[in-house]
Amino acid sequence: MKKLKKVIKNNKLIFLSILLYGITFFVSPQVFFKSVEMTKVFLIQMVEIMPPIFIISSLIMVWIPTEVITKTFGNESGFKGKLLSVLIGGFSAGPIYAAFPVAQALFYKGASVANTVIILSSWAVIKIVMFMVESNFLGITFASTRYALTIPIIIIMGYLMERLVSREDILKELNNKKVEYKSVKDVLRELPNMNCGACGYKSCQDFAEGVMRGEVVIDDCAIRKRAKKTSPVLKESHQEE
Amino acid sequence: MNMWGAAIYAIVVGISYLYAFKKNKKGGKKAVKMGGIQFLKQLPMLISIFLLIGLFDKFVPKSIVVTLVGKGKGILSVFSSAAFGTIVMGPVSSAYPMGEILLKKGATIAAVAIFLNSWVMVGFVTIPYEFSVFGKRFTITRNVLAFVGAIVIGLLTGLLLEGRII
Fold it and tell me: B residues 42-101 near A, CB within 8 Å?
């Protein structure tokens, strides 16, 4: 029973959608079948879009040096960085959810909050390949006016975001996600293994056993505390080197 | 997904691969592995989002929207187009024909532009996914800003093209 609860809790969304579909099926079978049909189209689209997206984002993580991203999209990148972010989004294809993994990778590697938002928004709105399609349906004046207005507004949105949400806010929230460790070995892998003793335990091994017993949490490790400002993903890649 | 998009993706991914493997064999392999793991991890989330998008799309009858946005005057058309664009989400290619229908039914330019921008930028259904990628604070702020931004862009477009805001 407990296990079932956990499964549901971890997959809230999918259970919610199954529930909604169940209700819909009884209330209006017609809507149900139409929705399933629509989802099928989306799934096919996803199979085309998402695998390359995840590969691109992990390629960014693995082999673009942090300094390069920080220099191009970081806080110091200025207006040029903003413009480049608009272009990256503009040349992409796919809906906004495809942009999330890529933008996250860039963010971890040092892109500023403003530029992350600009990439996300322009990815969604500015589609250079779709410009002609839009003109066909809604007229070229409409399309070009909308584009001309959207670009500055997106950049303003980036500036506002930078003011409202700090980089640390986001990293803190993402870092604090509960990680469950299955064994002492799992904990040890996340520790510096310097046996410094600053936590009060004799060695990292003892500390890890303490974490498993629930006496301490992993972030009580003095060295980890110091390193907390870096992103979780960056930490991972450091360990593997 | 249109042909163009697919072709561009294929090229970008192909080039990145070649470059990655040439430069650093181990790194390239690691990237593919990491990408795969990340994809599988997020798969349940993505599937449920698609299920919800499909359901929302069919749940809000298009005819109601056309009446509200198309015949609604003033502030009502602004908010109904923004709300509709926010709740329903879909590929941008299906938003264009919808916009055309709205224009023909008498919607203002502003309303159509608001609808288009909020359709792609603000995602009610994708919020849980965005939470997991960027955290709650970022997600909520971004969506609120995008919602306001979509309205501003729309109103300005209307002002420039029709000489009126609503």
Answer: 42, 44-55, 57-59, 89-93, 96-97, 99-100
